Amino acid sequence: MDAAELKRLQTPLKEAYRDDAARALITLRARGSVDDEAIACKVETGRAVAVAGLHPATGGTGLQLCSGDMLLEALVACAGVTLKAVATALEFRLGGCTVEAEGDLDFRGTLGVVKDAPVGFRAIRLSFDLDTDEPQDRIDTLLKLTERYCVVFQTLNVRPDLSVNAEVRRKIARM
After folding, report:
1. What are phi and psi of 135, to 5 degrees?
2. What region, left, alpha or beta, does residue 16 occupy, with left being phi > 0 and alpha being psi -120 to 50 degrees?
3. Which distant-in-sequence residues (6+ apart) come within 8 Å of 87 by Cβ?
4. What's the Cα-to-Cα distance from 27 to each of 11, 19, 23, 140, 150, rounded to whole Å?
5. What DSSP letter does each residue of 38-95 carry, written as one string?
6. What is the pLDDT of residues 30-88, one digit of tens each?
7. Are strands 121-131 and 96-105 parallel, antiparallel or unpaired?
8. End-to-end CA distance of the chain
9. CB 154 within 8 A of CB 145
10. Model confidence over 6-18: pLDDT tens digits?
11. Sheet holding 40-44, edge to edge
12. H/E/C letters for each residue in 140-168?
């Protein structure tokens, strides 16, 4: 896809969203079910079921996906797509790109070993290995716009309103 094709696809969407902001608000959903046998959650991905379980540092076998890894993978996927879209729109000469995310966790927090240890990532680093002959100012613009428009990056960077609720269904055992 080139810049003209991307613009052709996005221009009507941008115009519709400018005319009616409500059309731009979309609710994305994810769904999973807790496994009956193992400490795991089966997440429906749209293409397959991904089974997430405990990380080996918390007693898991390593045979199931780690949700922390999945978070970093979502960041890599979003950042990679965003970078490619921005590069296309800017007509940025990009021969290729590798995207990597790494994050530091202190599992003492997750396991409740000490109360002052954080639960979650202490730091996340996102990096791009770019194959380009573009000047540094264009590279800086590409990275700035990628950071600005990457949904997952911005969600991690600017904490959204979060809530938790539960719907309780009581099952009565039949004898």
Report:
1. -70, 160
2. alpha
3. 94, 142
4. 22, 19, 11, 32, 17
5. SSEEEEE-SSSEEEEE--GGGT--SSSB-HHHHHHHHHHHHHHHHHHHHHHHTT---S
6. 888 888 888 889 998 888 899 999 999 999 999 999 999 999 999 999 999 999 999 99
7. antiparallel
8. 63
9. no
10. 999 999 999 999 9
11. 31-34, 40-44, 49-53
12. HHHHHHHHHHCHHHHHHHCCCCCCCCCCC
The alpha carbon dihedral of 77, 78, 79, 84 has a sign of: positive
Please report where in the chains the tokens 């680093």 appear, as a residue.
125
Residue among 84, 114, 82, 88 at smallest CA distance from 2? 88
Instruction: Give the angle 142-145-146 at the CA atoms, nearest 5°.
Output: 80
SS3 131: strand
